[in-house]
Batch of 2 targets.
Target 1
Amino acid sequence: MTLTQPLRDEHAALVPHIDVLASAADAVGLVGIVELRALIDASHAFLSDQLLPHADVEERALYPAVQQVLGAPEATATMSRDHREVQALTEELDGLRRRIARADAFDDQLASALRRVLYGLIISSSCTSPRKRRCTSRSSMRG
Ligand SMILES: [Fe+2]
């Protein structure tokens, strides 16, 4: 086993959950509010209970080591930016989740906000998981 294998295993375990985010985003406007609540709750639980703790461990333990080995403090800057974006969008999703819990039905504004946040989370969370390579150029373009 290589030194990075545990991290690779953890990343592999995250992939199916990112697909749950995609299912929730795609379901907005196509399923009833009860079914969508369940998808949003599952998405939020994954983000809060698994992905953000994973990102926190990377920030505290992995990234300082990578920076030291590479002699480049900025080496993990784009990944840290993605982590902060996931945190912010997760908080926004929680707010939308609370609105949905009180709603009898969607309006267009709520549906648009849900799509924006969920698709944003798919992109940003893919950057903190095995799909990281796909978004390297996007992250780099943001400067
Ligand atoms: Fe990661």
Note: Residues 136-143 have pLDDT under 50 and may be disordered.
Target 2
Amino acid sequence: MNKELLSLLVPKTQSLEKTTGSNDSITPEDINMVLSYSSLTKEEYNFLLMKFVSADTYRNAFVSEIALRHMDKESKVLEHSFLNKLINLAVIEACEPKCIFCNGVGTITTINSISKCPHCTDGVFNFTDEIRNNLLNIDNFSKYKKMHDNLTTIIQDIEMSALSKIGDT
Ligand SMILES: [Zn+2]
């Protein structure tokens, strides 16, 4: 299954748009069926729904699962709330890399010119350590860089495993 199909699970707003009722289209039920047979772990399931369906709805569940997994190792050194922030940041970097300055276009257009957007590479936002400092409200991200790298690796592994289980590789 192509991951893009997961977007079919997005709850449709009660719009004026009538469902066409065609028989051969893929329905949310079909997608749920694939998901339920693909033996995803809870983390993988939540990751897919968070990234491709609704970040706001599923992010907390995903973040607390990752936090739980790391509590033992990290709770001695880190305040729990800060660990959560760090995980949230890694999750945002994994899920929403679209540049907010140019809307993911990669260029900034003014009346007189088109220039390359300084905040991203081809529309994918550049998370620099300076930006991470700002987002975490700290001034020494380098201290947490290793932990952040670990979290990023964990999240990437979950994504790869999840996508291969649903057959999108
Ligand atoms: Zn940009």
Note: The radius of gyration is 19 Å.
